[in-house]
């Protein structure tokens, strides 16, 4: 946050624009700092509303936005494939930021928050910093990529000597995350990379397990994972694809989106644009009153008709919202 | 395990008894060591069957076995109260050992494993050993008792500056476990006690959240928590009682049992006793063919009729099964 305010002062943004779009907790927490330090007002939008509007807009604009992993059961061989998400409803939306929110989405304006967990990207990063001394999300992911959780976790075969057949638990499943680390000589034999990998696998599998139960509860078969935790993080995406496939016997599909962590900012921009436009002309008004999926398309058509003022505000809004800390920004060190 | 084998050799157990009851993974993993090192056979019983039989037996024998926390919403004031568990069915059973198994129990011989998580007591102990340098479960719990997770976790108010009203998330809820630990000066300001407390709160709340979803899925309102993770661990029991009460708006009840971690051993002993007795007299035979709740009571009546051989085996069985490593023994350092 302090970085954005510094930039706003240096570049004299307050001379150019008076209002900045913001979503997430920061929109509330930092409102006074914006007013006092750079004399800017915040246009605040709910992070879950903007998240969904951003996703729907991106899906309409980009036919290859949504993808899944083919051969998900073989993590070494699983590969990205485009998924037709043009008929999305209903779906479970798992937003993995520093924490995790899980939504059941029934339609463009119809969703509920069904669950969540505090074990998210912030937990992965926080634990990795403590356990490995790393200093950034990118560094933590790099370490995890080179490590092996099997030296840290206790597997079913470490307990049973093989599979626990009766309940279909194969020997290579993790029975207890970090379950070998109470043994002194095991602790001294693991590397930073192993600890980072175990942390990533632990957090990712837990999210997958909770998401699967939500899908079961809501009787939905599509589970869409978004959020900055998935940025530069194919290990987690492949693990989630595997977990959905394995634990549901293929009845659940894990889906991912190319712009994983930026939908809140995008949706925020769209709503702001819509509201400004609505005050200016009728064309744009329809973009706020009609359903987001249609508004997404009419929105893009409507944009050229916006006044330069609206367009200017919007372009600045995009800059600001992407730097405004939100609860799904896992690697913002000053949020 | 090596400790038990050493003891068995020193005390010449093999001269006195030829068969040892065992449950959990160790019964399979260590079978050969038993045969080779102390010439003892293992009578192996499934850990979930024995767990439930042990619970039902204890409940019949001890009227104050089961309890709940009164005033669960106020952790500082919540207090143990006896709960009448004489009509138990149906209930969710959460067995928190090194990992966690969650069962839906419909009747004495009718249950299914509905879920589980690898984030259990082994994860708490493993992470505490890594983060604080402690060396035992008891030490980890002692540290946790003196710490404050709010210095480690990111709360909703750290993000929103207050509550996130729209979704009923109050400011003091944890939004991201360990969510402050990516900030260098926050890391340097937390104590071992704070880290242990945050680890305990993280693992406990995650188990509570998954258990709640299972109860929702199975439409059950009683959730019974057992396993060695709860031994000398009132913090976790009070947190679980709070979580069940809070997140279900009082529709779910968290229940606990006095002999938290020993039901597998007890049920194992009962089954073995039943099988031996079945081979000896008709009275006992009915105890293995009838339902466990009736067998639990008739079992206890039948015991005096057992031969000294059976009785002797059983008494040793109790010793061995309590020391045999099982997946719900969270503080066995050589499993």
From TrEMBL, chains A, B:
The keyword DNA damage does not apply. It is found in: Cytoplasm. InterPro entries: ATPase_NBD (IPR043129), Type_II_PanK (IPR004567). Keywords: ATP-binding, Coenzyme A biosynthesis, Cytoplasm, Kinase, Nucleotide-binding, Transferase. It holds the Pfam family Fumble. Belongs to the type II pantothenate kinase family. GO terms for molecular function: ATP binding; pantothenate kinase activity. GO terms for biological process: coenzyme A biosynthetic process. Residues 283-335 are annotated as: Disordered. PANTHER family: FUMBLE, PANTOTHENATE KINASE. SUPFAM superfamilies: Actin-like ATPase domain. Pathway: Cofactor biosynthesis; coenzyme A biosynthesis; CoA from (R)-pantothenate: step 1/5. This is pantothenate kinase. Its EC number is 2.7.1.33. It is an enzyme of class 2 (transferase). Residues 286-300, 315-335 have a biased composition (Low complexity).
């Amino acid at each position: 946050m302090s970085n954005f305010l510094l930039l706003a002062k240096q570049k004299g943004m307050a001379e150019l624009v008076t209002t900045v779009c913001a979503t997430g907790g920061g929109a509330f927490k930092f409102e006074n700092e914006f007013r006092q330090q750079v004399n800017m007002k915040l246009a605040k939008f709910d992070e879950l509303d903007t998240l969904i509007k951003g996703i729907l807009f991106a899906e309409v604009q980009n036919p290859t936005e949504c993808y899944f992993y083919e051969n998900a059961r073989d993590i070494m061989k699983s590969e990205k494939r485009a998924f037709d998400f043009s008929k999305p409803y209903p779906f479970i939306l798992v937003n993995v930021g520093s924490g995790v929110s899980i939504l059941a989405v029934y339609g463009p304006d119809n969703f509920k928050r069904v669950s969540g967990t505090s074990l998210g990207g912030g937990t992965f990063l926080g634990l990795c910093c403590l356990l490995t001394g790393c200093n950034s999300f990118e560094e933590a992911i790099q370490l995890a990529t080179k490590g092996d959780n099997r030296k840290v976790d206790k597997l079913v075969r470490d307990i049973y000597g093989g599979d626990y057949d009766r309940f279909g638990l194969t020997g290579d499943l993790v029975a207890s995350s970090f379950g070998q680390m109470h043994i002194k000589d095991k602790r001294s034999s693991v590397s930073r990379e192993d600890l980072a990998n175990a942390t990533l696998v632990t957090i990712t599998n837990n999210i997958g397990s909770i998401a699967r139960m939500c899908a079961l509860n809501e009787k939905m078969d599509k589970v869409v994972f978004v959020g900055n935790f998935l940025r530069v993080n194919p290990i987690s995406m492949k693990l989630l694809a595997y977990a959905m496939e394995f634990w549901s016997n293929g009845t659940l599909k894990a889906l991912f989106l190319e712009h994983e962590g930026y939908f809140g900012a995008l949706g925020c921009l769209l709503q702001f644009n819509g509201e400004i436009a609505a005050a200016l002309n009728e064309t744009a008004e329809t973009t706020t009153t009609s359903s987001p999926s249609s508004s997404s398309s009419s929105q893009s058509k409507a944009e050229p008709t916006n006044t330069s003022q609206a367009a200017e505000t919007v372009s600045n809004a995009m800059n600001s919202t992407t730097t405004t800390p939100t609860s799904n920004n896992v690697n913002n060190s000053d949020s």
